[in-house]
């Protein structure tokens, strides 16, 4: 059932955590939902087509029958909630603060994401004020062959693969929403409030997203592009960016 709904209807997420969410809802919760629907339909057919079915069913008086009709749904709910605890843990997991060994100790990277009208600001926390850049929609006359219209930006968010990346999302003006469909992640950017979440990408690639909260006239022109690269490529890019923009080392 999971593979049918996943491949044919919903597609596949490029995240092990959100694939677990998909499997839980499609292959676990949906099974109970289908079971309840079939049970109710069978009761309705029995009442309609069986002779005196209405009288036999609703006139049946048994304490044991009433007891199990009350207890079985309770056990089903407990069963569903019990197996959702791991998903709740993974969804709310946040990397602790940086250790004294350095920002990348324990595979932890902090990125502050600020939504503004109508662009995104990315700050790599702990690296200095130089590690900050804006990400604007790329205009049509600046695009290269093969790039996606209204989805490509001038500065991508670069992150290493198989690293725990903590994103701190907020807004500098109105409400925005940082949304990556293929990763299965969406978090609102609220002014005066920082929403924190953990991201871990399992494969290299380019992930496209957009602002999914109506934020004004330029709402349609706030794309998100996250490029996931191997860790050695990420650190090389980081050094090149530092020598280019850091006034102290330049």
Automatic annotation (TrEMBL):
GO molecular-function terms, A-Z: copper ion binding; cytochrome-c oxidase activity
E.C. numbers: 7.1.1.9
Predominant cellular place of this UniProt entry's protein: mitochondrion
Keywords, sorted A to Z: Copper, Electron transport, Magnesium, Membrane, Metal-binding, Mitochondrion, Mitochondrion inner membrane, Respiratory chain, Translocase, Transmembrane, Transmembrane helix, Transport
Keyword match Magnesium: yes
Catalytic activity: 4 Fe(II)-[cytochrome c] + O2 + 8 H(+)(in) = 4 Fe(III)-[cytochrome c] + 2 H2O + 4 H(+)(out)
GO CC annotations, alphabetized: mitochondrial inner membrane
GO terms (BP aspect): ATP synthesis coupled electron transport
Pfam hit, one: COX2
InterPro entries documented for this protein: CcO_II (IPR045187), CcO_II-like_C (IPR002429), Copper_CuA (IPR001505), Cupredoxin (IPR008972), Cyt_c_oxidase_su2_TM_dom (IPR011759), Cyt_c_oxidase_su2_TM_sf (IPR036257)
Cofactor: Cu cation
Enzyme class label: translocase
Gene3D superfamilies: 1.10.287.90, Cupredoxins - blue copper proteins
Membrane spanning residue stretches: 28-55, 67-90
Ranges where the Cytochrome oxidase subunit II transmembrane region profile domain occurs: 1-95
Bilayer topology term: Multi-pass membrane protein
Cytochrome oxidase subunit II copper A binding domain mapped to chain residues: 106-240
Keyword tRNA processing carried by entry: no
Xref: SUPFAM superfamilies: Cupredoxins, Cytochrome c oxidase subunit II-like, transmembrane region
Subunit and interaction comment: Component of the cytochrome c oxidase (complex IV, CIV), a multisubunit enzyme composed of a catalytic core of 3 subunits and several supernumerary subunits. The complex exists as a monomer or a dimer and forms supercomplexes (SCs) in the inner mitochondrial membrane with ubiquinol-cytochrome c oxidoreductase (cytochrome b-c1 complex, complex III, CIII).
PANTHER family cross-referenced by the UniProt entry: CYTOCHROME C OXIDASE SUBUNIT 2, CYTOCHROME C OXIDASE, SUBUNIT II
Homology family: Belongs to the cytochrome c oxidase subunit 2 family.
Record-given protein name: Cytochrome c oxidase subunit 2
Gene: cox2
């Amino acid at each position: 059932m999971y593979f049918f709904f996943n491949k044919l209807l919903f597609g596949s997420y490029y995240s092990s955590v959100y694939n677990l969410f998909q499997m839980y809802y499609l292959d676990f919760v949906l099974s109970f939902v289908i079971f309840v629907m079939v049970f109710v339909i069978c009761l309705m057919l029995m009442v309609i087509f069986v002779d005196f079915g209405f009288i036999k069913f609703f006139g049946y008086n048994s304490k044991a029958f009433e007891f199990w009709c009350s207890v079985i749904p309770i056990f089903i709910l407990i069963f569903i909630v019990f197996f959702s605890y791991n998903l709740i843990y993974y969804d709310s997991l946040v990397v602790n603060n940086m250790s004294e060994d350095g920002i990348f100790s324990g595979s932890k990277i902090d990125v502050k994401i600020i939504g503004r009208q109508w662009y995104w600001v990315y700050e790599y926390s702990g690296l200095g004020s130089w590690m900050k850049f804006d990400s604007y929609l790329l205009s049509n006359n600046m695009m290269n062959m093969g790039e996606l219209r209204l989805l490509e930006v001038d500065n991508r968010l670069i992150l290493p693969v198989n690293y725990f990346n903590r994103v701190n999302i907020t807004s500098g003006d109105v409400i925005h929403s940082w949304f990556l469909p293929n990763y299965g992640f969406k978090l609102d950017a609220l002014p005066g409030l920082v929403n924190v979440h953990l991201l871990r990408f399992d494969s290299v690639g380019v992930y496209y997203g957009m602002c999914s909260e109506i934020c004004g006239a330029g709402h349609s022109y706030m794309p998100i592009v996250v490029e996931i690269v191997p860790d050695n490529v990420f650190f090389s890019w980081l050094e090149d960016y530092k020598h280019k923009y850091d006034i102290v080392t330049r």
